[in-house]
Amino acid sequence: MKVTVDAAACEANAICASLVPQVFSMHEDADGGDVLAIAGDGEVPAGLAGAVRDAVDRCPKMALVLRE
Fold first, then answer.
1. What gap in Å lies between CA 27 and CA 58, rounded to an integer?
2. Which of 3, 9, 32, 43 could lock 63 by a disulfide, CB 3.0 to 4.6 Å apart?
3. Whole-angstrom Cα distance, residue 9 to residue 56?
4. Is 2-67 assigned to CATH 2.60.120.590?
5. What is the C-alpha to C-alpha distance for residues 10 and 56, in angstroms, rounded to an integer?
6. What's the rounded Cα separation, in Å, for the pair 58 and 53?
7. Is this structure's pTM higher than 0.90?
């Protein structure tokens, strides 16, 4: 399973980062804006699959894409 982010749609609400900090985190870009980072090139560890699915479902901008 792999998760990616549509950077144009993401508003950096950080809901995903609060739910699964092992996979999602917020960082500041060169312009000082918040951007979402995904660990491990988006590969989801098996033990976190359910939590990542929940984070994808809760994204208010539907900016996360999950491929199984």
1. 20
2. 9
3. 13
4. no
5. 12
6. 9
7. yes
pLDDT digits (tens, 9 = 90+) for 2-61: 999 999 999 999 999 999 999 999 999 999 999 999 999 999 999 999 999 999 999 999
Q: Which residues pair with 34 in a beta bridge?
A: 28
Closest alpha carbon to 44 in 22, 60, 19, 63: 22
Answer for the pair 2, 44: CB distance below 8 angstroms, yes or no: yes
Residues 12 and 24: their CA atoms lie apart, in Å, by 11
Number of residues assigned to the chain: 68
Q: Which residue has the tokens 């951007």?
A: 35
Helix (H/G/I), strand (E/B), else coil: 43? strand
The two tokens of residue 7 are: 């950077």
Interior angle at CA 13, CA 34 and CA 57, nearest 5: 130
